[in-house]
TrEMBL record:
Gene Ontology molecular-function annotations: acetate transmembrane transporter activity
A single Gene Ontology CC term: plasma membrane
Protein name as annotated: GPR1/FUN34/yaaH family protein
Protein's membrane topology: Multi-pass membrane protein
Organism: Arthrobacter terricola
Keyword Nucleus: no
Length: 215
């Protein structure tokens, strides 16, 4: 019978049954790819929402979101699936969907691909934010059995999305700006998790990730 062990696969460690150690190109930790790609895209969005770039130039985050975050997270998802790391694959797929759909929405609104009028652009953005707030809130709840740093990271994502939703609906720049700062808080925790993964994979000791909030 396989024994129970902790698999340190991406952004977090998950308790699961021990898997056969893979060999060849599939061996490794998908988080080494997925985490920094998510960090790059989120950091860019944080800069946009905190006003580092003017609202008229908000599309400058798209190249990073499309070519780096979405592609990198898709690669990490496929890699995790190949290793049988289902929980990590699900997390990476969710973040991939976020960045890919953000890019699709932004490019579609800019180029008029979807026939959405300028008057309905706010409704389209609000609907997108509501969908992802629901999805990430659900993910936050089901990660309560993981180390609390993972849950904290997702709480920051939820808070950022909620504030951005309020800012979009009410046309409130202050709320949008605050949502950008919560995005930076997510980035800070993700960087901590990336250091843990990188140090562990290069022969060092991983960083403490905390105990699960729910056992």
């Amino acid at each position: 019978m396989p024994s129970t062990s902790v698999i340190e696969d991406l952004p977090f460690a998950v308790t699961s049954q021990e898997l056969e150690t893979p060999s060849g190109p599939l061996a490794g930790t998908p988080g080494i790819v997925g985490i920094p790609m998510a960090v790059a895209g989120a950091f860019g969005l944080g800069l946009v929402n905190t006003g580092f770039v003017p609202a008229s130039a908000a599309a400058v985050a798209l190249p990073t979101a499309v070519a780096a975050s979405a592609v990198g997270l898709l690669l990490a998802t496929v890699w995790a699936c190949a290793l049988g790391q289902n929980a990590s694959a699900g997390v990476f797929a969710l973040f991939f969907g976020f960045f890919a759909s953000y890019s699709a929405l932004s490019l579609g609104l800019i180029n008029g691909w979807y026939g959405i009028s300028a008057e309905q652009a706010v409704n389209a953005q609000s609907l997108w934010l509501i969908c992802w707030l629901f999805a990430f809130s659900l993910l936050t709840l089901v990660t309560l059995r993981l180390p609390w740093t993972s849950t904290l990271m997702l709480v920051f994502v939820d808070a950022a999305l909620l504030l951005l939703l309020i800012g979009t609906v009410e046309n409130n720049a202050s709320m949008t700006n605050l949502g950008g700062w919560f995005t930076f808080a997510f980035v800070a925790v993700a960087v901590y998790l990336y250091i843990d993964v990188m140090w562990s994979q290069t022969g060092g000791r991983g960083l403490p990730l905390g105990k699960p909030l729910v056992r």
